[in-house]
Protein: nucleoside diphosphate phosphatase
Amino acid sequence: IVSHPKPELWFQELFPLKMCPANASMVTFYGIMFDAGSTGTRIHIYTFIQQSPENPAELKGEVFESVKPGLSAYANQPKKGAETIRKLLEMAKNAVPPSHWNKTPVVLKATAGLRLLPELKAQALLSQVRMVFEDSPFLVPDNSVSIMDGSYEGASYK
Structure:
């Protein structure tokens, strides 16, 4: 199983540092991250727990699944590529309680496979993925679907 070190880095701009309300003893929240690599697309559904307002959130669990081929294999069929994302997103509906869906951010970070495609083909794929995200019950932040710059991609796995 491939796991990303420090998954909170993927969501640091989406979650406030302190999610736990002052009058609560513990808060559970979720984040969904797609890693669209050249050989496959992986979904990571993270569960975070914040024990108290004074403490940062901690990663408490991860659900993982992957499909092959990678999103870039659908360069000439962007709708078909986006359907692979839709199928993985169905898994997230089972892992995240419905009461949290509209508060759970979903992001996709594409790597070298999409970066190497002609820009119009890559953008067509990303646009279709964004539409799948917007059709879902999850929170779709600005810039939720993007191609990682090669230097950041290497740094995120260290």
